[in-house]
Amino acid sequence: MRVARRTGELMHCTQCGTNNPSDNNFCAQCGNALITICMKCGAQSSPASQFCGRCGTRLNTAAPISAQTQLRDRSLTGERRHLTVLFCDLVDSTSIAARLDPEEWREIVADYHHTVAEVIERFGGHVAQYLGDGVMAYFGWPQAHENDAERAARAGLGILDAIANLNEHFSLVKLSARVGIDSGAVVVGAGSGKSADVFGDTPNIAARVQTAAASDTVLITGATHRLLSGLFVVEECGAQALKGVANPVELYRVLRPSGVRGRLAAARGLTPFVGREEELRLLLSRWERARDGEGQLVLVVGEAGIGKSRLVAEFHDHITDASHIWIESAGEQFFQNSPFRAIAELLSQWLDLQAAMNPDQRMERLEQALVSAGLKPEDSAALIADLLQLPVGGHYPAIALSPEQKRRRLLTALTEWVFGAAKLQPVVVAIEDLHWLDPSTLELVQLWGKQGV
Q1: Are residues 343 and 413 both part of a single domain?
Q2: Residue 263 and residue 271: Cα distance in Å, rounded?
């Protein structure tokens, strides 16, 4: 809906019908905003415009706040929140825009904004503003979660992956982005609708951290790092001076989620093992039965924070010297609709697939593991490689199965693999957070339990 239009030398407000002088930014009668300023090039547009007519930059999509609303909101009490702020910006966008037709650049930026927003919302974040080709998002407002810092870090990595996928559809450009994240106390002022003002250093620091990041990296502050509890593999970058920030800020580059191993390590390091000796003895007795060839299924149940991960970590420490295969994974809230996500992580850990390996090396490692377990690679390697997103090249024919047939064959192949390996030495499969498992993974775990016991 248009809220203002020019009539000769006047700006006509369509909200109240008043004709305003052409140099008015707000309606003199009702206080309604009459123009929107592009934050990249400074050009004026009507509030109804989605993109700048001069440079093609997406304009802030938040509803314009009238002058009267701004004055009224100043009297409202703000809400104190602990917020994690993510700031994402394109690298070298000015030179890219200069090479393209404005309409082409507008479409590219629109796709980029949509892609970033989709990732942010998937992890429970809120897109606060589009600032040119930058995006600022809040994790912790309007909805707070106990793991907002984790959500923001996962979103940052997800944004980089999504942009890499987006680049495959672009023929004119290759986009790169930087992501900065900070966490801290802020005051959120009541705004109009979903909009709100955030007061505090956190948004500014997140923006400055983003400028310190290298292309295609996620950089977080020490404040955010302390909230992640070993959930991510990070690289220390030291304390750095940031423009507009009084003291140097400790920075860390987020490389990847550490998976359940990081969680167990964090539990081992942060909590003493007290009062769970009886449960530990039970696990150790079941372990001895498994070593004698009797399959065992143990379900560890308890409220959050009661020490389940700590118990599993202690059990792992006790059997370290015994010959066995230990593989672990976890259900994740963010991937409940991704079939076999936890199993893919578990298998990657089992095969020790390294980022530096090329596809042929990864495929060779998979084939060797299948042969060791008594399986023929031609029967199952292509199915499992597809799960692990490994290209099979011309080694195996294309999988000509329906989705349901493929799922059933994969369940069988994975079960034969695990039980084949268990004939050589005991296998311990530790899976946390069963309530977050996708249905296919849960079916596989139940199948292992039935056949193993």
Answers
A1: yes
A2: 12
Are 245 and 276 in the same domain? no
What's the rounded Cα separation, in Å, for the pair 221 and 14?
46
Shared domain check, 331 and 222: no
Q: What contacts 301, CB < 8 A, 6 or more positions away? A: 308
Task: Identify each DSSP E strand in 319-448 by its residue range.
Answer: 325-330, 427-432
Strand partners, 76: none
On the 0-12 / 13-18 / 19+ scale of CB atoms within 10 A, 222 is middle
Tell the residue number behind the tokens 């015994």, with chain if given. Answer: 322
* 139 domain residue, yes or no: yes
Reported as a single tens digit per residue, the pLDDT across 302-339 is 887 788 888 888 898 899 889 999 988 888 877 888 88
Q: Name the β-bridge partners of 180.
A: 87, 219
Looking at the domain assignment, is residue 6 inside a domain?
no
The pLDDT tens digits for 81-135 are: 899 999 999 999 999 999 999 999 999 999 999 999 999 999 999 999 998 889 9
Residue that is last in its domain, among 213, 237, 257: 257
User: What stretch of H or E contains 286?
Assistant: helix 277-291
Same domain, 219 and 357: no
Torsion angle defined by CA atoms of residues 350, 333, 449 and 257, in that order, rounded to the nearest 10 degrees: 10
Strands (E), 267-355: 325-330
Residues 385 and 363: beta-carbon distance below 8 Å: yes
Where among 257, 275, 301 does a domain terminate? 257
Bridge-based pairing of strands 325-330 and 427-432 is: parallel
What end-to-end distance do the CA atoms of the chain give, in Å?
A: 65
Q: Are residues 146 and 279 in the same domain?
A: no
Residue 195: which domain range?
77-257
Q: Are 52 and 101 in contact (CB under 8 A)?
A: no
- How many domains does the chain fold into? 2
pLDDT interval class at 14 (50, 70, 90): low
In the block, which residue shows the tokens 């597809």? Answer: 386
DSSP state of 335: G
